[in-house]
């Protein structure tokens, strides 16, 4: 058995996964652009060879296909490829989905789309806040995008809580791979991700992440930050008598 490469790239803790009472997990629905599938194909061929890629396609029940960047394909193909790769290469499906996520970010840069991400903000914090706007920008090139939603719910000097909502299920670790690789590739930041909660239903998924990283771009709310947080700890104390004599 061939072991999955690039393992150990991330540190993830999946604390809780819950599904609302009465709901059932379902396969991803909808379609996604060939850009995502092409990224997987390119890096699996690069890392493991053409023959193993053909084996993974066969295991996934997907015909030999030349993915077109602007053509859409069934969502479930991505999950099927991950399950097949886990069998063929060895490893867990979540690990493979994470790997797929990193592949997409690396492939993304080949088309200079990384410039969109770099313009989203000066640091990783700004990027996280602007993810939805990045998707809207991409919609000009990919008008049928069924993009997820990301909201920074809260933040502090050590990271943030990020809410991820999507009509798709089963892509949590794919997203984590993207988040980790974007942090590393574009902002030279190491991030530790905790899945605080994952709720799935027929409508999709709602995932709460805790991202631990050096959030140096964070500014505490006015009047609530300490002198150290505000960067004033090294200034000398000034007494009121200096101004009022």
UniProtKB/TrEMBL annotation:
GO terms for cellular component: guanylate cyclase complex, soluble. This is Soluble guanylate cyclase 88e. GO terms for biological process: cGMP-mediated signaling; response to oxygen levels. GO terms for molecular function: guanylate cyclase activity; heme binding. Residues 33-194 form the Heme NO-binding domain. Pfam families: HNOB (PF07700). SUPFAM superfamilies: Ligand-binding domain in the NO signalling and Golgi transport. The lineage of its organism: Eukaryota, Metazoa, Spiralia, Lophotrochozoa, Mollusca. InterPro entries: H-NOX_domain_sf, Heme_NO-bd, NO_sig/Golgi_transp_ligand-bd.
